[in-house]
Amino acid sequence: MTPNEKLAAIRGLMKAQGIDAYIIPSSDPHISEYLPEHYKCMAWASGFTGSAGTLAITSAFAGLWTDSRYFVQASEQLAGSGYELMRLKVQHAPEYADWLAGHLPAGAVVAFDGMLTSVSLAKTVQDKLLSGGMEVRSNMDLLTPLWADRPALPSAPAYLLDAAITGESTSAKLQRLRDEMERHRVGTHFISSLDDIAWLFNIRGSDVACNPVVLAFALVTADTATLFVDGRKLTDTDRASLAASGVAVDDYGHAADALRGLSKDSVMLLDPRRTCFALYNMIPATAFVVEQTNPTTRFKAVKNDVEIAHTRQTMIKDGVALTKFFKWLEEAIDGGSITEISLAEQLRQFRAEQDGFVGESFDTIAGYKAHGALPHYKATPASDSVLRPDGLLLVDSGGQYRTGTTDITRVISLGNITAAERADYTLVLKGMIEGSTAVFPAGVRGYQIDAITRKPLWDHLRNYGHGTGHGVGFFLNVHEGPHTFNGAAIDVPVERGMITSIEPGLYREGSYGIRIENLVLSVDHTDTAFGSFMAFETLSYCYIDTRLIDRSLLDAKHIDWLNAYHKTVYEKLAPYLDQETRHWLAGKTAAIS
Question: Where does the Creatinase N-terminal domain start and stop, copy by copy (predicted)?
Answer without folding.
Answer: 7-129
